[in-house]
Design brief:
Helix content is 28%, strand content 40%. It is built from three helices and eight strands; from the N terminus they run E-E-E-E-E-H-E-E-H-H-E. A hairpin with a 7-residue loop joins strand 6 and strand 7. The strands form three sheets. Strands 3-4-5 form a three-stranded antiparallel beta sheet, with no helix packed on it.
Amino acid sequence: MRLYIVFLNPARNKNYIVMTNHITTKWLGEMAFESNNPSGHTIRIDAGEDSGGSGAGLRPKALMLSGLAGCSGLDVASLIKKMKLEVDDFKIETIANLTDEHPKYYDSVVIEYHFTGANLNEDKLKKAVDLSVEKYCGVMEMFRKFAELEIKIIYHNK
């Protein structure tokens, strides 16, 4: 569900539209939660056994990395289609360093874009990644606020 809030600025007599996301995260007992998504899907979040959970769900910090890869991946997949590029397989490996002190957070992240195919156009694929990283991916921009990012593009030619 998307919620649009319109603020009226009487000084300028202009309307401002602010787009927000609203999710609900429900405790299931022990260390497990279920969280919905504006698309209507749900995920299970759980701590590992070493932290009192049963390990039956995704971990919150790892979900952040999935969000980062997913955001950029959607951009790149869209650009692959628009550019009519031949790509047999595409995956993103995200490797992050967690700080030692609490609150622990990711201070550096390596994002590897792997493209596989017999006829890869490396220049256009690099352009697609660059557009996502530098212009389109909002999650990437959020990560820049607290982590050093390293981008790698790896081509696997068949």
